[in-house]
Write a structure and sequence with these properties.
By secondary structure, this protein is an alpha+beta fold. It contains 1 helix and 7 strands, in the order H-E-E-E-E-E-E-E. This is Carboxypeptidase regulatory-like domain-containing protein.
Amino acid sequence: MKSKLLLLFIILITFSSCSDDDKTEEATQIGKYSIKGKFLAPNSVDPIAQANVHLFSSNAELANTLTNETGEFSFSQLQEGEYKVLLEKGHFSSEETVVINESNSVNSIDIGDIDIQTFPKIVVVTGLTRFI
């Protein structure tokens, strides 16, 4: 009975020490960089609020957020690497690529104002309408 309890105790200590190692490894993977920007209408003046903003690295989505009332967004705790920022509001969208490396002189990369790049296809038909 004592040997079974001792074995159980050793197994529990082993599992708890492994989970602590995982937490330490995750903490070291948090980066010191951030990306911020502002999503604007095609007139380059009016902000686009509540737009979806997605952050990708190697075609995998890392994070997402919404723009605030002034069209601003940000992502933090990023490491060096290449990121794709995809902004969407309805059928309108824009995409920017950001490269973060040790040559960046600041930790916060401002990609500035981003205007809508992709517009939906709209057809307007004018003419005389008759009701029978």
